[in-house]
Design a protein that fits this description.
By secondary structure, the protein is an alpha+beta fold. The protein has one domain. It contains nine helices and ten strands. It has helices at 83-86, 101-104, 154-164, 169-177, 199-203, 209-226, 237-245, 253-262, 288-291; strands spanning 10-17, 31-32, 57-63, 71-79, 92-100, 192-198, 270-272, 302-308, 333-339, 352-359. It is globular and about 55 Å long. The model is unreliable at 1-5, 111-182, 205-209 and 232-247 (pLDDT under 50).
Length: 368
């Protein structure tokens, strides 16, 4: 995949549940929920809700090194479990952290071996990420990062990373709470591995009748529910024109386009396309591009990188271990914008804040 193919998205889906008692924490693991796994040298943080002041829960951890970069790179997305907070900007926070390969102990997985592989683009960082492995023994667990294209072995990365992040679950909770009271425990969502596929692979070929029939069945169900004809999956242009001219019963063509796009994989929880265009669920503000602030560290522009999807909502349930009641976030999609330069001060121990924009789901019951 060439670096210029900016509109090809990588789709993340939840895989097996991540049991913290059996799986060692790793900064190269892509996951939903749980506790954040920080890169060595990056200070642990407990971000708080800007609206209610409560500790935020980790929603997703994404390992996303960039092409031709010497840095390992993580994005941690946090949110307030309160329904009244997650719908607004103050209830979310995205932190970017980086670390040189010498700090982690191995080269980023996406980087090719000398004279063996061609360089990979930023959108190739997820290759073979679904190969996070099957546990053969309790002390050996393979959970590859999204950037597996370079072929680095997980144990090379984890030897130092795990040593730096080896505290027990209770100890890590205590560190994260940063002096919070017993009643102010950091909320923790159930954790799942994230596997990834190229969105173009979801469409299938002409002979892939099973997948095509399933996608059309989803579309027909949506048409019956909303009273809108979105056209056939075959043929491309004709169906698209028919779709563009139709109007959903609720009058939201943007939402109809959103549904059509995700129909081949409605269970997707994350979309990644750095430098591409987000898939909005409702009409965004006309000045959204101008509303994305410059990077607070270097002053440079930000670009779209990833978004969280509605299917994630039902998976974000509070674990019983943290003493909290079952809770779900309330959002449609969360758009994440990051520094174009991915600026980082070598030796810095503080994660960098990035920008996110939450959109409410106009028809959340479709994903229940």
């Amino acid at each position: 995949m060439s670096s210029g193919s900016r509109d090809v998205s990588l789709v993340g889906v939840c895989d097996g549940e991540l049991d913290p008692g059996r799986h060692r924490p790793s900064c190269v693991t892509n996951k939903v929920g749980g506790l954040p796994d920080w890169l060595p040298g990056v200070s642990r943080q407990c971000p708080r809700c800007g609206r209610c002041g409560a500790p935020l829960a980790l929603v997703s951890q994404v390992y996303c090194p960039l092409d031709a970069s010497p840095f390992h790179r993580n994005l941690h997305v946090f949110a307030c479990p309160g329904a009244e907070c997650s719908g607004g900007p103050q209830g979310w926070r995205v932190l970017r952290s980086q670390g040189l390969e010498t700090q982690v102990g191995a080269a980023p997985p996406h980087r090719p071996a000398p004279a063996q592989e061609a360089p990979l683009s930023a959108t190739d960082w997820c290759d073979t990420a679904d190969d996070w492995g099957v546990e053969e023994e309790e002390e050996e667990e393979e959970d590859e990062g999204w950037a597996g294209g370079g072929g680095v072995k997980k144990d090379q990365v984890e030897e130092e990373a795990a040593a730096a992040e080896a505290p027990s679950l209770s100890g890590r909770l205590q560190d994260l709470s940063l002096g919070a009271s017993h009643q102010d425990v950091v909320p923790v969502f159930r954790s799942f591995f994230i596997s990834v596929v190229d969105e173009s692979d979801l469409c299938g070929g002409e002979d892939d009748d099973c997948d095509l029939a399933h996608a059309q069945e989803l579309l027909r169900e949506y048409e019956r529910r909303e009273g809108v004809a979105v056209g056939e999956m075959e043929g491309g242009g004709g169906g698209e024109e028919k779709y563009e001219k139709s109007r959903a019963r609720h009058g939201d063509n943007v939402f109809s386009r959103f549904m059509k796009t995700i129909s081949p994989c409605p269970q997707q929880v994350l979309r990644y396309c750095r430098g591409g265009r987000p898939l909005v669920i409702s009409e965004p503000p006309a000045d959204l591009a101008r509303a994305v602030p410059a990077c607070g560290s270097c002053g440079g522009p930000r670009t779209f990188e990833l978004q969280l999807m509605p299917a994630l909502v039902s998976l974000l349930q509070r674990t019983r271990k943290d003493g909290g009641a079952e809770a779900e976030l309330d959002f449609g999609t969360l758009l994440v914008y990051t520094c174009v330069n991915s600026c980082w001060t070598t030796g810095s121990g503080a994660a960098v804040d990035e920008f996110c924009f939450a959109q409410a789901d106009p028809d959340q019951q479709l994903f229940k």
